[in-house]
Amino acid sequence: MNNRLGNGWGSRIDRNASMAFTFEGRPVTAHPGDTIASALAANGEWVLSRSFKYHRPRGVLTMAGQDANTLVQIGDEANVRADLREAAQGMAVTPLNVSGSLRRDRGRIIDRLGRFLPVGFYYRTFFGPGKNSWLKLWEPIIRASAGLGTVSLTPARRHYAKETRHCDLLVVGAGPAGLAAAITAAKAGADVILVEKEPELGGALTYARFDANAADAACKLAELRDKAAAAGITVLTGATCNGRFADNWMPVLQGDRLIRIRAAELVLATGAHEQPLIFRNNDLPGVMLSSAAQRLMRHYGVRPGQRAVVYAGDRDGYLAALDLDDAGVRIAAVVDPETEDRDGLSDVLIQRGLTVMRGCRITEAQGNRGGLHLKSVEIRDDNGTATSLDCDLLVVAGGYTPGYQLALHAGARLTSDDSGTRFSITGMPPHVHLAGAAAGLSDLGAVVASGEIAGTRAAAGLGLLPAQDLPAPVQARWRRAVPSQAHPKGRDFVDFDEDLQVKDIENAIADGYRELELIKRYSTVGMGPSQGRHAALATARIVARKTARSLAEVGITTSRPPFGPEKLGLLADTTPERYRHTALHAVHQAAGARMSPVGAWWRPLAYPGTAPMSDAIRREIRLVREAVGMLDVSTLGKLELRGKDAATFLDRIYTMAHARQPVGRVRYCLALNEMGSILDDGVAYRLAEDHFYVTATTGAVERLYAEMMLQKTLWGMEVDIQNVTAAFAAINLTGPHAREVLQRLPGSIDFTREGFAYLDGRSGELAGCPVRAMRIGFTGELSYELHLPQSHAPALWAALAQAGAEPYGLEASRMLRLEKGHIIIGQDTDALSTPDELDMGWALSRKKPFHVGKAATEQRRAMGRKRQLCGFVLPGGNDAGIGESSLVLSNGQPIGHVTSFGHSPTLGKWIGLAYAAPEDAKPGSQIRLRGFSATEIKAPVVALPFYDADNTRQEI
Amino acid sequence: MKIMTCPVNGPRNISEFQWLGPVHDTAEATDADLLNRLFFAPNPMGVLREWWRHTPSNTVFIAERDLTTDEILRSYLKGSDADRTASPA
Amino acid sequence: MPLELLKYGLRRGHKPFHDIPPTPDLRRSYDVVIIGGGGHGLAAAYYLSRYHGITNVAVLEKGYLAGGNTARNTTTVRSNYLTIPSIEFYREGVSLFENMSHELGFNVMFSQRGQLTLAHSDGAMRSFRLRAEMGKHAGTRIEVVDARGVQKICPHVNMDFGGQHEVLGGLWHADGGTARHDAVAWGYAKRAAENGVQIHQRTEVTGFGVSGDRVTEVRTNRGTIQAGQVLQAAGGMNGRIAEMAGIRLPIRCFPLQAMVTQPLKPFLDILLSSSDLHTYLVQSSRGEIVIGGGTDPYQLASTRSTLPQKEALATGALQLMPFLHNVKLLRQWAGITDITPDFSPIMGASPLQNYWLDAGWGTWGFKATGVAGKRMAETVATARVPDILRPFALDRFSRFELLNEMGATAAGH
Q1: What domains can be seen in chain A, in order of their start residue?
Q2: Which domain range does residue B89 map to?
Q3: Distance (Å, rounded) from C-alpha A336 to C-alpha A351?
Q4: pTM of the model
Q5: Is C312 an 8 Å CB contact of chain B?
Q6: Helices A315-326 and A290-300, interaxial angle, to 10°?
Q7: pLDDT digit string, tens, across residues A645-663
Q8: Would you call C307 an interface residue with chain B, using a CB distance cutoff of 8 Å?
Q9: Which ipTM did the prediction report?
């Protein structure tokens, strides 16, 4: 069947070209500009999918993507709105909720079983007979029927883009009101962006009829488009503004692009949503909104039916009837619920020879065999007398609700009059203006005028027009929406997405769910993809009626972003988070390092080359203990503090004393939080009286830096703090031969034992690189930490290698430090660890009146410690499977856990650190450990460090 | 995204800022009010004076913000005229 | 088809189930007044009336029933915590969920499909091992799995992230699951009401009468009532309510945002989360993918939603499952969480003798609905805090005996 109208209809299609796609495997031809739904309709296919619950055939309702009836699957994309998506050559479209074929869906049996499935039925049953019956028996059955489209696990890649724009004024909606607002503000000098979700400007002017004379709208459309083109407005068509966030931060979706627009002023000309009517079988294909019929005809040149009944709940019904008549659709009758002629339009229809039935309602639609399409309509007058009219099209003009969503995101409210038939938006925040149909206006002149007022006020808000003598803001008017009644036999759908009928809402109320939000949750009304755009109002009315309250008391609806569907791909950041590379990254890779992300950085774990990792780690440990190794420690946090209060400041931030730390000396730093828990550690090298260079752990430096900035401001201290973590690289050179390596290199620093003592710091040149050298280390061997501008790092690394140093990795470093009993913040400590628990009381200066955490430390000390970090060795091998996080037990209960553990090749033993009960944590005592295999063993506690107890090796 | 006005750099996206918590009456905790300060942070259904940091420029300042509406009433540097006229937290 | 539905369908007309009675007039006095008609308050009312013979109980709810965080959370039920007191408490919570539908005769759809938390770093693996060891000790089903194990449990997970955030392993918590949040609250409400408990919706507490160390009366927008005992379980409003009673709680409010996609045919059976990415995913019985993460970065008591958080959640979701890029978001929402300094709840006594606290649930209160209700009912009925609740006492802060859970709560809820 060919349903195309003749030339003069179908502004969006190109009749000179054709293409083909498939629907359920059947070939469909389309013109460029067609949507999937319009192309199918042109080919006589009105059923698009089956409904979610009852598997009822569903077709075009709004032609505006406002409902779930038109959701289809296109290849790997689920839940595509067939009435919005442009048809494309070769696409494979399949309907939803179908088992078998769309026309002979096996699931349609469920429609017959509806009486056995009351609202909320799944709460009543499906959990017996056994304890686990829901999970094992019932849920799998219900889950099998859940969901709409199917996710592809291997979809084609898409390129999504994000951009940010700024403008003086963003106008949402390019109907007559939005165009007028944009033109007015642009003329006043505003930088305006106009966003329109349709592919062209004009809104309702492109499809609707505003008067008996259809030409008026066309003239106005041409005029507004010309003016807009001349006004220098940035226009985004096919772009949906999907939400309004604080300070007019507006996400706009255009294809695969998310445009985030910051607008100083905002005009919402978002139009109105035509509402469906409730009657029996109101979901039959062939029943559609008046705007949908008009869109089909004017945009796509598709004849919506052969013989129509038009329900004129408002003026637009009459106007749609005129359009249908113009298009050659036979009109069986125009049905008007009112007895009076409100709009003066019925005479025009009667003159054309059309039948107008006054004081009548639609009570039922009947379908053909299989319920695949409308066959006839039952109409009742006020006396209850029924008439049946054959038709294949029922056009419903049931009134509107304003396009409230963005306004509600902005904090406005949707309100109604007492009778609950008229709606309005109130309480708009500053810098947001309402215009056109969204403000309840329908007369074209008034709509345009409201746009001009909104544009003028926005321009004044921008200071482009004088603030005096402004027109009053557009007064939101009431917009009519026709109430409708339940049908005693049901199938009178309130919510098409969720297949909910009037009785479902009424029964939910009877079950005790009297508040709108409870009804929503209990019945799922409004929870589907159309987000209650059609159901919210009807539901609120039923609730008001059934609970004898006003709509105002019941409330109508709320709205949250997003307005329409938005793909996760659009929202996600396209650049994945990346780990940082040190300046030596390439050098490590070239040396055969095994790299791994650690914290925020890529770090070399070891340099195995082709050898097994474990061998490499053992070799590197021996390298450090017996010769000399070098480790890239560029990942250390690094802070530079300058100013007359620098030392005093450090004294307050850290627990040790820095005020009298000599220039050229390095001191350990321990930072606590206000609760007295360990926050971070590092070293401070005093470069000058008023200048310190401080290191921090890589994970904590950002937090520490922010904390320092806050404290500096709080204390009003004169100290300049810079986070130079990224600017400096650092190399730890360690091992008994470290000094010899350094002395082989040219430079200005005296590396002799006498000239550069333990905990000394020296600045100068080394192998042509400017360095800050500190004689400190984690390994217990003779160690130098060499800090230098990161661009010099590869050169120094190469020079050190040349002079005899070999690289070692993080795994060896971890064991080397464990052998020395050094802790790693964040691994051996947690959010509650105190210095006392770590036997680090020595790091707390007793003389200072204040440091962060001092008061708490003293209070906590007075309460005694509940655990203690201690060193232990396994008496033999590790058959029990002890590892980091193994539990430490006391009286059978976990008292702590192993924080660090490993096999020390130096000592030939398994060693570790663990939290234990304080009484067990003394050398000579034993702790009970539980291995991962649940075997428990006793391990002797030993004094720390495990290796080189007198710390002689670092002093050589 | 919300806009926060940095007293030095002007209005910027709030993603450029780090929230640093409430402004206390005193710079240091005393023994007496230690527990309050550590654990009983203010949580008013109204305006809170709080520390913020503009991270790109490293500016630490005070903002007054309504915790029920997220409205930022004003922002200023410590010790500025605005700070001196601020009501105590 | 189950017999109940057959019987229903063969009957003429709808015989109402009367789950929630209409709000009655306030009595002059109640033995127990429960402030907050969310899951916790309703559960406490149920256990008081069912197991302690206390039926002269009023539940006061300022809005509609269970409309706060009960309605806004993402329904995770789990017990994979880090400390023994927490694990034991939540383990009891999980076991109550396992029998809840039968206990209430109301299907709460507890679906124990297991929760898999991914580790992308050494540190996360270490922390998971500790949680597993603690959990096993306390008798929960939990284990650490390696990367191959992750793939076996959830073949859809993107394992290497293009070289970024490579999945090293995970924590598999077979006890974890979801339940239908509304149904939990309604089920408790229904049975509590049947036992004589009065549920008062749209009834807002405006103040208290306090005499000495006792609360004597509760003032509401609908009148003043006398109260023998008062239990406050007011979710995001806990700080404010306690303040009215002259009690200061260590609570700050932060919004927690979540979002949900359009319904899709089920493909994800388990709860999937990543602590490093601050993201979790679960597919509901309706087929929607629920996506959540951490709380907002600053203190606020508003349920507004933000674009940056939505973008962050989408980023995390697509890192875990890149094939979801075509999937469309349906809704975004927020709840107000009441966060304590140690990210653990406050339960038990208050400075007032007859005023009991159930507060500080932050982002994880739903999973404790049953156990908090049961144990708080026991507390109120016996005027004695049971041992299982003692570690959660309000005065733990002044003793510096915080619960060491700071690492276990991020993005797990």
Answers
A1: 1-157 (3.10.20.440), 161-273+402-462 (3.50.50.60), 277-397 (3.50.50.60), 493-564 (1.10.10.1100), 587-627 (no CATH), 631-817 (3.30.1360.120), 866-955 (2.40.30.110)
A2: 1-23+44-89
A3: 17
A4: 0.94
A5: no
A6: 30
A7: 999 999 999 999 999 999 9
A8: yes
A9: 0.96
